[in-house]
């Protein structure tokens, strides 16, 4: 044996054993190897054993095989053991480019190479960079190479450096080349002139400008604009400045997502920037009429949440869920007043709207043409029916009637088709109908005394509500940027009975109508006593007209409903609270209203001792009022107005 042990780094061909053999009959001797590790070695014809495959101490520290000598008939064997000694070997390294080339506009931190390394002795690996361009890059502890300094194709089209890995004693290196591609334009940055753009702005108003663009070759740049609605904007092809070039309509489009593109003159290279223009609503209507259907179908309820499909107009028409019609706009600067009170008529109980745009006249004032009027079935004299629909006191119908038409067209609403109607001075008018949808065709006057054929469609069971628009400006002025609490009174509704008006009674809003559907009308005696609420005694409340006293006082702009909290007397019906609503300019304001009624003829020992007629009702209405601009989960930047929503919880037991 040449030695008892050999380094694992010993080269292939190194002699490990020399052998000699003789045959008594002087026969020819041949040598061979056998055993577990025989394949790791080779033996020559003279018996010299050499290394055939590299030794690896980490895999195996000793190798066992047998040297055989044969004369052709007999074989003599000698077992051998070769020991391998350990050598601290260099770590392995493999580096891979993330791409064949990289744009000169690639950002700092972009990965260009990933590396992997392992040490045969499982030592700790550390990475480093060296070479001419090593400072342009950085390498992390896991061997990832990233850009450390911006590229410049005009200065260098490739960068050369070496990735090194070390186990503390040995180092393995790999030289790499990163190729760079040319970019003529990049990094186009734009700045909006304002977070929102008013829908009423004039053409030519600045929307956005170019803040910066990377143009290393000083090319001539041409700008263009694309995206849905880009025709409403203009772009300066030389500077990239964007201005308005058409009329916006917040109700149809609340935001425009545009793309500004810069194109270079040398090779038509391009770079882009997103320009998102949020439109801000302008509260155009100062007074208007809102109408919609009280009917619905396909109700669906899940827990406390319910949905349904609201009815629309006649077949073949599309009115949407609601319709707004203007009385006078904010732009009508020559109008005497911008409130409904200046245009409503309390002598014939009607309110006008403009259906067809065009100039018209209201007295000596020029406003949009008021070519349609709603006539409400409300009396103009004192007493019951003065402020509220009262078929038992005043026989009045409602009408949808044209104004300034080539010939007047009227659609009548009979008393039997009216569910409820009323007014608050000349500031609010409403009418709830039980009437089929219909179409009115008439020739409406436009400016210049010309006429145009117009179709007016009503909703099924239409609700018509005319009032001043509660704008953000009014809200801000009223609250003065502070929380305020207002007290409201719910409008009672008259339940009309076929047996005659003397048996009618009033019930408050939010009561479920199903409570009044039975023939016995048990709940009549459980409803709030509005007549007694304003101080009438029992004998007076037997008079039909006096049952309107509370509603008349509520709807009279010159009177108030007092409670013990706000006045010396309490004029609220027993068991009924006012609706207290918080107005909060900075967020949501909560509102609350409750009604508790109990009826029982139990008198104890001196009278009835049965409780089979006991009834109770508890209703609680919880509301939430918030400015739309505070709730961007449901509304958009630039929206105006307020949202009022709530839930009514009730329980009836008998």
UniProtKB/TrEMBL annotation:
<dbReference type="InterPro" id="IPR015919">
    <property type="entry name" value="Cadherin-like_sf"/>
</dbReference>
<dbReference type="GO" id="GO:0007156">
    <property type="term" value="P:homophilic cell adhesion via plasma membrane adhesion molecules"/>
</dbReference>
<keyword id="KW-1133">Transmembrane helix</keyword>
<keyword id="KW-0812">Transmembrane</keyword>
<protein>
    <recommendedName>
        <fullName>Cadherin domain-containing protein</fullName>
    </recommendedName>
</protein>
<keyword id="KW-0472">Membrane</keyword>
<feature type="region of interest" description="Disordered">
    <location>
        <begin position="1"/>
        <end position="28"/>
    </location>
</feature>
<feature type="domain" description="Cadherin">
    <location>
        <begin position="189"/>
        <end position="301"/>
    </location>
</feature>
<feature type="domain" description="Cadherin">
    <location>
        <begin position="5"/>
        <end position="93"/>
    </location>
</feature>
<feature type="domain" description="Cadherin">
    <location>
        <begin position="94"/>
        <end position="192"/>
    </location>
</feature>
<dbReference type="GO" id="GO:0005886">
    <property type="term" value="C:plasma membrane"/>
</dbReference>
<dbReference type="Pfam" id="PF00028">
    <property type="entry name" value="Cadherin"/>
</dbReference>
<dbReference type="GO" id="GO:0005509">
    <property type="term" value="F:calcium ion binding"/>
</dbReference>
<feature type="compositionally biased region" description="Low complexity">
    <location>
        <begin position="1"/>
        <end position="22"/>
    </location>
</feature>
<dbReference type="InterPro" id="IPR002126">
    <property type="entry name" value="Cadherin-like_dom"/>
</dbReference>
């Amino acid at each position: 044996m040449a030695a008892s042990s050999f380094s694992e780094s010993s080269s292939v061909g190194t002699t490990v054993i020399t052998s000699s053999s003789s045959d008594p009959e002087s026969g020819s001797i041949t040598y061979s190897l056998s055993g577990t590790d025989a394949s790791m070695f080779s033996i020559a014809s003279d018996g010299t054993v050499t290394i055939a495959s590299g030794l690896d101490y980490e895999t195996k520290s000793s190798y066992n095989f047998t040297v055989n000598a044969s004369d052709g008939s007999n074989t003599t064997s000698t077992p051998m053991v070769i020991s391998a000694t350990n050598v601290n070997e260099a770590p392995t390294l493999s580096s891979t480019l993330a791409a064949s080339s990289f744009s000169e506009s690639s950002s700092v931190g972009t990965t260009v190479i990933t590396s992997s390394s392992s040490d045969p002795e499982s030592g700790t690996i550390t990475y480093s960079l060296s070479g001419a361009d090593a400072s342009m890059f950085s390498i992390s502890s896991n061997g990832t190479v990233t850009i450390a300094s911006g590229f410049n194709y005009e200065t260098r089209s490739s960068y050369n450096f070496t990735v090194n890995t070390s186990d503390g004693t040995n180092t393995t290196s790999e030289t790499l080349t990163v190729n760079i591609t040319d970019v003529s334009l990049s990094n186009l940055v734009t700045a909006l002139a304002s977070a929102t753009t008013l829908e009423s702005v004039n053409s030519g108003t600045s929307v956005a400008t170019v803040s910066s663009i990377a143009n290393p070759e000083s090319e001539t740049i041409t700008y263009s604009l694309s995206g849905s609605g880009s025709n409403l904007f203009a772009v300066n092809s030389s500077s990239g400045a964007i201005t308005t070039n058409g009329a916006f309509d917040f109700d149809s489009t609340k935001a425009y997502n545009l793309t500004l593109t810069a194109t270079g003159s040398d090779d038509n290279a391009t770079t882009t920037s997103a320009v998102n223009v949020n439109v801000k609503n302008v509260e155009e209507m100062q007074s208007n009429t809102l109408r919609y259907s009280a009917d619905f179908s396909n109700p669906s309820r899940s827990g406390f949440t319910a949905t349904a499909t609201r009815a629309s107009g006649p077949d073949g028409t599309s009115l949407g869920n609601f319709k707004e019609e203007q009385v006078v706009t904010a732009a009508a600067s020559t109008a005497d007043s911008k409130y409904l009170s200046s245009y409503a008529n309390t002598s014939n109980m009607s309110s006008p709207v403009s259906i067809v745009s065009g100039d018209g006249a209201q007295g000596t004032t020029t406003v949009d043409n008021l070519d349609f009027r709603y006539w409400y079935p409300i009396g103009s004299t004192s007493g019951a029916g003065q402020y509220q629909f009262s078929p038992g006191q005043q026989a009045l119908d409602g009408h949808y009637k044209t104004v300034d038409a080539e010939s007047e067209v009227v659609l009548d609403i009979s008393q039997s088709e009216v569910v409820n109607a009323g007014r608050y001075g000349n500031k609010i008018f409403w009418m709830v109908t039980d009437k089929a949808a219909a179409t009115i065709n008439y020739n409406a006057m436009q400016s210049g005394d010309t006429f145009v054929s117009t179709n007016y469609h009503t909703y099924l069971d239409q609700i018509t509500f005319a009032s001043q628009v509660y704008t953000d400006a009014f809200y801000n002025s009223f609250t003065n940027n502070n929380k305020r609490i207002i007290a409201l009174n719910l409008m009672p509704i008259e339940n009309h009975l076929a047996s005659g008006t003397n048996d009618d009674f009033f019930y408050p809003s939010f009561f479920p109508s199903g409570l009044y559907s039975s023939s016995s009308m048990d709940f009549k005696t459980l409803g709030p006593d509005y007549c007694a609420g304003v101080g009438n005694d029992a004998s007076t409340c037997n008079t039909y007209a006096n049952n309107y006293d509370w509603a008349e006082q509520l709807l009279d702009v010159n009177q108030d409903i007092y409670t013990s909290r706000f006045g010396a007397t309490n004029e609220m019906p027993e068991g009924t609270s006012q609706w207290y609503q918080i107005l909060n300019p900075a967020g949501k304001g909560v509102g609350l209203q409750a009604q508790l009624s109990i009826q029982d003829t139990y008198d104890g020992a001196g009278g009835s001792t049965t409780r089979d007629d006991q009834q109770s009702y508890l209703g609680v209405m919880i509301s939430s009022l918030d400015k739309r601009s505070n709730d961007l989960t449901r509304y958009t930047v630039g929206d105006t107005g307020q949202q009022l929503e709530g839930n009514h919880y009730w329980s009836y037991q008998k």
